[in-house]
Amino acid sequence: MRIVEWRELTVPLEGAVRNAVVSFADHTVSLVAAVSDQRRNGRPVVGFGFNSIGRFGQAGILRERLFPRLRQADPDDLLGEDGGFDPAAVAAVAMAGEKPGGHGDRASAVAAVELAVWDLVAKLGDEPAYVTVARAAGRPVTGGPVPVYAAGGYYDADGGGDGGTARLRAELDGYRAMGFDAFKIKVGGAPLDDDLARIEAALEVAGDGSRLAVDANGRFDLERAQAYGRAIAPYGLRWYEEPGDPLDYALNRALADTYAGPIATGENLFSAIDAENLVRFGGLRPGIDVVQVDPGLSYGVTEYRRLLGRLEAHGFDRASCHPHGGHLINLHLVVGLGLGGCEAYPGVFRPFGGYAPTCELGGGTVRPSQAPGFGLEEKPELVPHLAAMTGDLT
Ligand code: MG
User: Fold this and answer.
1) In the chain, which end has fewer C-beta atoms inside a 10 angstrom radius, N or C?
2) Rounded distance from Cα 218 to ligand 1 centre (Å)
3) CA of 213 to the centre of ligand 1 (A)
4) How far apart are alpha carbons 334 and 147 in whole angstroms?
């Protein structure tokens, strides 16, 4: 059993939206194909993965470092004891010669590779990836459904015009009509009073603070994070996301000392030790706070399972993990690993954001289909990109 070819396609995200810090207009994603020597229905079996949305494609790291290592490796080094492809072994080969720490963009490049191998393994087993992931982790196999919330409430790329409360309500009403009953909106890109008006408009749709989260995308210094915290505390929101710089553990700790509600963070941390440091130094509170480390940005499933082990050793329940990145891959990982829930970006981040029409969405939950692997082939917007990568294979 061999992986005979590694391919990468850099795909731009569609839609011009922004949060408090960045515009996504220029963002890209690396789609990776692991082409195997195994055949089904007269075609090679190909595993697809991608690094998560919200950052950038990693063509340089993939083509200059990771793919050459994988091509030059002894093919047996990519196999597990059962003779099948081993995502952890592949990730280890991809990381050969890399020094520890300073994870950065390398972590999402490795993730795209590692996730492509999970897709490949699941397809070779003719089963959905959540089954493969659950079995590998020694967990019970359930097919979901899992809780999902709609993330949106972005500021327009031009700055938001009228403050946008009518548009925001209409946006969230649209999500509710799709079957979502929990929501997340951006804050911090407008003055506090304007953001409070946005929150109150969103609450008209969400109904209760427990169904609405807000995300500052790491914009605030401690003073402003605490001012926002004081202002939003009466709403009893589901969580207050990334109030300060993702690496400012002291800020997070100081805020956790004064803001009683849940704080969510971690989407911009890319390793198990980074997440553990949140607990050691960032004041993260078991049973209250939410960890959003995204496997697609942090070396994939192998490293994410290490992270879960570290968090559980500190008294956290994996139900407190809600990975950033609302897409098919993370849906399968949330189901397979028994995490707290998924996010979804129904209106933005095409072609990667959101789920396939074959996924069951309703009642505030989502359930993956029975398609083999991550089921990316069932997402119509992705199909042309998958075809562009593999259409020449015979
Ligand atoms: Mg966020």
Assistant:
1) C
2) 8
3) 10
4) 10
